[in-house]
Design goal:
This protein has helices at about 20-35, 45-60, 95-105, 110-115, 145-155, 165-185, 205, 210-215, 220-225, 250-260, 285-290, and strands at about 5-15, 40, 70-80, 85-95, 120-125, 190-195, 230-240, 265-270, 275-280. With about 300 residues, it is α/β, with parallel strands linked by helices. It has one domain: P-loop containing nucleotide triphosphate hydrolases (Rossmann fold, 3-Layer(aba) Sandwich). α1 (about 20-35) packs across α2 (about 45-60), α6 packs parallel to α9 (about 220-225) and α8 crosses α9 (about 220-225). The chain is globular. The protein binds guanosine-5'-triphosphate and magnesium ion (MG). Magnesium ion binds near residues 21, 66 and 95. Magnesium ion binds near residues 20 and 65.
Length: about 300
């Protein structure tokens, strides 16, 4: 018998240039192909937005960064458990600048309030190769920061930008508080951490559990998630939507990419029990955030070696 759910949203969280929109386009291809853990269950009303991103990827280009002010609340009918369960997935996409504004102004508008009211989980994006990232700093003795703070005091200029992981933790705090207050939900919030452009991660990190990369490069975020089991149910994924860098040049990778079925490109790396898996199912981060049970996630409670 089919188990229907109410409309549920999965919120895409991340700063500018983190990989949200391009993942959404590649995710749509995977949902549309109906071969992954989650599949489409009919056509979404706003299919044009998804098709535009997907068609850029089809023609060998990443979709451009989202313009500030855009808020695309895509609603996709989906099914899982081999069609036994179905629901409506609402995936709002906006420019990373809107997330920065939420951090600065400590408020979000009614569109976000609506998305959070039906939030099943969230997908948090970080792209290690983005030039927008601000590295964690040693505030107590970093000479450049101390100089900058001194100048800020003298000139009333804006303070230096906060490290990216501080913003990511702040967004999670806001979402977790809203999840509890608005929904009255006592369950931990499901969080998929997507380390995007995993094809550009350092060679030695690429085949290891992406959670180790998180622990080394964003230790505050890693410890915040793993140290609060009553608030969060996190899982870290290394995601490459293409398998390599898309460029106008006639590289061997591009020749291969343009010949391939775009739904066969890219991969997801994740820990499964005591192994590390490389899967071609790009819906897995969504499946975790949505709360689906997938064999790829391994048995709960099995410790890593
Ligand atoms: N090599 C590689 N690059 C990627 C991948 N995914 C995203 N990128 C790069 O990341 C850039 C930013 O991706 P977007 O999807 O636009 O990021 P966004 O989070 O939507 O950014 P805003 O709209 O500014 O908030 C792309 O233009 C690509 O250069 C990937 O799987 N592999
Ligand atoms: Mg975008």
């Amino acid at each position: 018998m089919s188990k229907a759910t109410t409309n549920q949203s999965v919120v895409l969280v991340g700063g500018p240039d983190a990989g949200k929109t391009n993942y959404l386009g590649r995710l749509w291809m995977a949902l549309d192909a109906e071969t992954g853990a989650i599949a489409k269950n009919g056509l979404p009303p706003q299919v044009e937005y998804l098709r535009t991103i997907a068609s850029a990827l089809h023609s060998g280009e990443f979709s451009q960064r989202t313009a500030p002010g855009v808020f695309e609340s895509t609603s996709i009918p989906v099914k899982w458990d081999r069609g036994e369960s179905s629901g409506q997935l609402i995936v709002p996409d906006c420019a990373g600048e809107q997330w920065e504004k939420i951090h600065r102004e400590r408020e979000w508008d009614s569109k976000w309030e609506q998305a959070v009211a039906s939030m099943a989980g969230c997908i948090l994006f970080f792209r290690g190769t983005s030039t927008h990232n601000v590295e964690p700093l040693n505030w107590s003795n970093n000479a450049e920061v101390m100089k900058c703070l001194e100048q800020t005091a003298d000139t009333n200029a804006g303070p230096p930008k906060l490290p990216t992981q501080v913003l990511l933790v702040d967004w999670l705090q806001c979402l977790s508080a809203a999840y509890r207050d608005i929904q009255g939900n006592e369950q931990p919030l499901r969080v998929s951490v997507v380390l995007s452009a995993w094809d550009l991660a350092p060679r030695e990190a690429r085949d290891a559990d992406p959670d180790e990369y998180l622990s080394t490069h964003l230790p505050l975020l890693h410890d915040f998630l793993s140290g609060n089991p009553l608030l969060f149910r996190p899982k870290t994924f290394g995601v490459s939507i293409t398998g390599g860098v898309l460029t106008d040049d006639d590289t061997p990778f591009m020749k291969k990419y343009l010949k391939e079925d775009p739904n066969k490109t890219g991969y997801v790396v994740l820990a499964s029990g005591n192994k590390v898996l490389k899967s071609s199912d790009l819906t897995l981060p969504l499946a975790w955030a949505f709360g689906c049970e997938c064999p790829e996630f391994g048995q709960p409670g099995i410790a890593k070696p």
